[in-house]
Amino acid sequence: MNASTASFTPPLGAEPKDWIALLKPRVCSLVVFTGAIGLVIAPGHINPFLALVAICCIALGAGAAGAINMWYDADIDALMRRTAKRPLPAGRIEPGGVLGLGLVLSVFSVLLLAMATNLVAAGALAFSIFYYAVIYTMWLKRRTPQNIVIGGGAGAFPPIIGWASVTGHIGLLPVLLFAIVFFWTPPHFWSLSLYAATDYEKAGVPMLPVVKGAKHTRLNVLAYSLLLLPLSISPWLLGLTGRIYGLTALVVSAVFAVLCFGVFADRQDEAGVSLTGDKPARRAFKFSLLYLVLLFTAVAVDRLV
Amino acid sequence: MTRDHLERAPSRDDPDRMPRTELGKAQWTDEQRIEFLRRRKARNWLLFAALAVFCVMIYGIAIIKLHEYGQMW
Questions:
Q1: Taking a contact as any Cβ pair under 8 Å apart, which residues of chain B between 25 and 54 contact chain A?
Q2: Of A24, A38, A197, A260, whose CB is crowded by the most CB atoms within 10 A?
């Protein structure tokens, strides 16, 4: 037996939870939620089993895009504390396996959705996977500090896919919900990046706080939260939803704007670096998650009541 | 595989042979071997479950589409 085979200790292999982690289950849960709401509020009827399959396809598609993202970003994930323990940078799964999983699930989810519902929904899902994996991950993320502004579109597709699954077309209400998620993404991510900026800097990802500084980022967080205020109530103003949604949107958007103002007015040094451990930014980030849940729940309740 | 292929197949001692996970040959402790088997079994069950769900979905879609619309597409 030669030396190379004698010293060979094969890896133990990945745990099932590692494969599941590749699908970014936490991101998927939000995507499934907004997709399901799109499905619930759409006019018309869909068989409950087909609705369940549609939601599974949205989750699988989002997971597939997440796996491709992890495959492409393995080099920078290894440099960031938040992502270094992911299965690929930690060496528990081979890159080829991750890419394979992403591609296979992408194809399966789109075909299955086409089979269960219609080509419009399947097309929207295919485009959202392409948007996240190629436009955001491969093109924008490492090139521009506006990466998450444009890339935010990827996470905004599920209400459109859900709606199209039932109706076979894309209406104004899901487009407005798309716009709300689109404009929600920047204050959500930039709040996080304010206290994770060193990680992004180490990895060379041009997030706004790294390129333009914390002060500029704080201003942008506030600006986008103010834009979100009229946008979030627009479905009510246009008569597409009722009072329940309108009042909920008004209250939660106002609270979010106040929290974002707290991020802007946080005690900081001349460079805009927080002197409070970025407490307001952490608070705004946490509330941003709740914001979307409350807003979308209100649309569904409004439609069902 | 033909006899010719078998004759040309790399031997176990061939330095160019790709390392493979062989339970009998791996430089593992007993605990590592047990852990490897546990993980492989868990992965196989996960794959089985995923394929089973996929089959149920296709079957369900086919039944519902054919019953409600009279056609698949």
A1: 25-28, 32, 35-36, 39-40, 42-43, 45-46, 54
A2: A38
Question: What is the reported pTM?
Answer: 0.85
Contact assessment for residue A153 and residue A175, using Cβ atoms and an 8 Å cutoff: no
Q: Look at the domain A171-305 and name its fold.
A: Four Helix Bundle (Hemerythrin (Met), subunit A) (1.20.120)
B40 domain-assigned: yes
User: Quick check: is B73 in a domain?
Assistant: yes
Number of structural domains found in chain B? 1
Nearest chain B CA: its distance from A301 CA (Å): 28
Q: Which domain holds residue B64?
A: 28-73
- Confirm whether B9 is domain-assigned: no
A99 to chain B, any CB pair closer than 8 A? The answer is no
Report whether A215 contacts A271 (CB < 8 A).
Answer: yes
Kindly provide the ipTM of the predicted complex, given to two decimals. 0.76
Q: A15: which chain B residues are within 8 Å (Cβ-Cβ)?
A: 39, 42-43
pLDDT digits (tens, 9 = 90+) for A109-135: 999 999 999 999 999 999 999 999 999
Q: Which two tokens stand for residue A51?
A: 């609705």
Query: What residues in B contact A12, CB-CB < 8 Å?
Result: 32, 35-36, 39
